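User: I'm putting together notes for a lab meeting next week and I want to include a structural view of one of the chains we've been expressing. I don't have a solved structure, so I'd like a prediction I can at least talk through. The sequence is below, exactly as it appears in our construct file.
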Amino acid sequence: ITNGPATFQRVINHILGPARWKYVLAYIDDVIIYSKTFQEHLSRLNEICQILKKARFRLNPEKCEIARTQTDYLGHNIKNDEIRPSPHNINGLLITRLPQTADEACKFVKAAEYYRKFILNVSQIAEPLRKFVSTTRTQQKKGQKTIITLTNEEIKAFEQLKNFLATDLVLRLPNNRFPFKVQTDASDEGIGAVLLQIYPDGDRPIAYLSKKLTPAQRKWSPMEQECYAFICALDKWHNYLSEIKFTWETDHKALTQLNQKAQLNKRCERWRLKILEYDFKVKHIPGLANYMPDYLSRSPVDDAEEDSDETAHLISTSTQTDILYDNPNTTIIAAVETRAMKLRNKTFKDISDTTKLTSDSLNNSIAENRTTSYSIEELIQAQRNDSYAKNIINNIKKYKNYMIKDNLLMRRLNPPVPYVPQGELRRTILKIYHDTAANGAHFGRDKTIHKIKTRYF
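Assistant: Thanks for the context. Below is the predicted structure for the 457-residue chain, given as structure tokens.
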């Protein structure tokens, strides 16, 4: 079944619920649980096993590894705050013979680029072989039969990639005890970025980012391209940079005031409003000191793509599977019934009197379109962690426009609505109302804001 893996992944995501990303990760049927102490690990292991048992999932004991200090996961070896390519996978690439067909060359390049976050300038090294990378099914079929003879330049690229893969490629795992830093740069070819952490003995790389620019983006001003590099870095590393203080280093001095004041450039101003949720300071560094992002921007790896804020997205749910995860703490936002939906429902009733919309089917419809969920407890905790909300809660009698109901700070509207602090929850709510079909995906700005204002403050 074509959509089987995606459907299974959605099932696993719903089953794991709030635990996912906190202390458990899952890629289809590969589940990994991580903890700081052995006792904590036993508790979490028992919890996840109970969740899987309740969902009637079976585990294969022969494939399970318990309480490991290092492990191989999705082609990566994780050990002692460091991450490396899996030796087994690397050995398979190192013993690869010289490609005899276009298909073999394509597979080698793709396998090597899977570890592009470890290799600086991998795109430039692999460029002579990239002409064998097929982009359509027709090209794939032809590549399986096309016999090739590599030129000296292509053989050199093949050997260089193998030599790089043979070295000890290491990235640090994120450590919240040390501050984060983002370095970005842009060129006519593309954008580059590096995520680092500042250790006492120097900066340590966490990940690399390199992306080509589209023909339209190449016509942008240097300021817009430099700003776009930072936007892409935030989108890529949001989970690392959200709700923490970090530093952004750029060699474009005009952007040092990006988070301080409004921008005359409309595109940069729109991006400025988008990134207000992040807490960062901007530091200007000379171009010569910004060598690594500059190198990446001139040798982009990822294909170009349009800025998501400038293109209209169409979301189809016709291939999604109905999944209802029984979680009483999950907040579900009711679907908005449009005129087209009313007409469709009326048509269904005219066709058959026995066709009814049950509460279960409605819940399924809502659940399948839910992008991200959060619990009331998480909202309460977010309010307690927010200095503005905390001040109101502690002096509630002074603030006549607010009230507390069930430990939740509410704004006195008609009806009262909960106050949502700045941060991840606001981003989640915006994503739900803007992206999910159950809430009228991708309405205009004014309609989306109006819907949110009637439910939150």
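A couple of points you could mention at the meeting. Confidence is low (pLDDT under 50) at residues 311-372, 436-442. The CA atoms of residues 9 and 29 lie 8 Å apart.

User: Perfect, that's what I needed.
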